[in-house]
Every structure is written in C-alpha cells, then in structure tokens.
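Tutorial handout. Part one gives the primary structure; part two gives the three-dimensional structure as tokens.
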Amino acid sequence: MPISRRKFIGIMGGGTIAAATVGAMTFLSTRTPNKALAPWKLAGGYDEPRRRALSFAILAPNPHNRQPWQVDLSQDNKIILYADTERLLPHTDPFNRQITIGLGCFLELLRMAAAEEGYLVSIAGFPEGFDQDQLDKRPVASMTFVKNASVQKDPLFSHVLSRRSLKEPFDLSRNVPNDVLSDLENMNQPGVTIATTNRADTVGKLRKLTHEALAIEIETPRTYKESVDLFRIGKSEINANPDGIDFSGPLFDSLSLAGLFSRELTLDTESSAYEQGVGAVMSNVDTAMGYVWLVTKSNTRIDQLNAGRDWLRVNLTTTSLGVGVQPISQALQEYAEMTETFDKVHRLLNAQGKTVQMLGRLGYAEMVPPSPRWSIESKIIRI
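Part two.
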C-alpha cells in the first residue's frame, strides 16, 4: 500500500512530534538504515561480469519491494533466474502477475548493466514452460553472456542510481508536459503498448477509480493486512529485513518509540493511526498530474515479463526527465472484491479484452532516499 511519508507526518505530526524531546531528536538524526541502503553504493563494485550486472539488477522496481528474485550462477557465462516463492503476495496478487512484472524489471536492468561492460545478454523467458496461475520452481529466465564489441550501451542506464518510486505528494502547480508523455509512449517491448494522459477529465476519473480501489484493498482485511505485515518501521527493522514498505528516518523512529505508530495500531480500524494513515493515502492520490499505463493483448507470463522490462524503462525515462512516477495499480489486482473496479479501469482505458499490466501516476516532487535492498550474496542460490 503506497503511503506518502511527508503527508503521513504532516497529519500525524503536530502534538505527536512536538512531544519528542530535543535530545531524542538529536539521537534519532543518526537513524539512517545504512546497512539496508549499502547495495546502492556497492552497485558496479564487482569484477566478475555477472555479479557486476546483478549488483544493478537488484535495484529494479518490484511490487511492495519484495525483491522476489533468486539466481543460479553454477554455469559458466550464464545466469538462471528463479522466482522466490516465499516472497509472493498471495492476497493482492493471487496469480503472481505483479511479481512476474517485477522479475521483468530485473531482467531489463541486468541486460542494460551487462551492455555497459560490452556483454550481449540473450534472454530466454520461462525456458521450461510456466503455470499461468502460479509461479513455481521452474526457471523464470535463462540469460547467456557473450562478449560483443558491437553491443550498444543504453543511455537510460546512467539514471539507474537516481531512480525512485516516488510516493510523495506531487506539485499541483506543475503540469506534466505533452513532450514527456510522447517520450514515454515511444518505447515498448513487442506486444506491449504504453499509453499516457494529462487530460484533466481522464486524470480525474483515474483518481476516482484509484480511491475506489484503495478503499477496497484497505477494507478487505486479508489484503490490507498483507501490506501492513510488510511495514518496516525504523532503522533496526529495516536493517534486519531490507525489503517491504519502509518507514525510515528520525520522525518515524520517534513515532515508533513513542508507541504512536506500529503495525498493530495501523491494523486497528478504531485507532487514530489507522484513520490518519488512510486519509494520507487517499489525499496523496489527488495529486496525480498525469498517468502512464502498459497494455498487452494477451496475458501470458512472457507478456508480463515484457511489461516489466518496459516498466523499468518508463521509470528510467521519467527519472531522466525529472518527472516522478509511482505505481498505483490497485485497480488492476485480480481478487474477487476488486473485480468490478478492475472492469471499470479496463473500460476507461479502452482495454476491454486486453490486460492493463501497470498503471502509474505522474508528477513532480522532491527526491526521496532509495528503498532498502538485500545484498546480491543473499540472492545467489548456487555458484
């Protein structure tokens, strides 16, 4: 569940933050989870070509920051990618479609990183076949590295370390220009269509549908709990489990230490933490200044991987243009309670009979810190 940290602080702040002592705030100013953020600094710091590429690939966007990838390096010049089936989202993503999209983001970033060192990476998706309903223990992809002097570097790669999924409120005074939308639409994998809008009427309708979808997710106990269970609050939790939905920095540490912000309180529908947190999420939606979405004609695992590869490129393109993007795909989730809203968004986007794979809001906001990551060593299952 996307939560604007700034908005959450603004709503919960006031007397809450004022209650923290100056001494406590001085202490908490050192609460950056440096261990969890170390992979961003270590990216590119490996001599072996596959590990070097992997050190960038693990920075790819992925649903709820589950980082659902595992790799086998036991074959020379190859990487075999697997889905970590312990890191799925069974309630909000019952068919593992969003997880597969995240794995596609990983693949595209790995390919781009390898090209920087003069390696052409051939990617075979699901070489042993797939189950359309559930990811299993079969490989997601086989990647072969071949040194090739003619391989072209991708100019988008220079923006990898600056990429963020921007969950902040967007600036309502700044429109997203048409040329930005054109740049986003002019790239796609085979079978994937990228579409955009900054039209006020369509933006308003998508805001309304997003409100509706978020309300369903939050008011459905199992889907809401799935998100809240992934909250990582404060330096210690984030360093111990550098995944999920992180709340870091002195203000969240102080709220946690004061007993005013926790997973338990957020799940309590009678608590002010629940009421104010939900209000923050909903108001954040209303700052969308444009949208981008990805559509495929079919919905195979290969389609999902290709959509992920394009979603990575959308993220890097917006970064290069100074525009923020946040995935806001609750209306695309495929559990029973979301069916009516799912149908509505497909009709609105003229995608009946197709699959809208991703939906993101666009706008301008200040840069935020990167998301925590597990190390590449923790993701290698065989060498």
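Part three, for discussion. Residues 60 and 106 are 5 Å apart (CA to CA). DSSP finds 15 helices and eleven strands in the chain.
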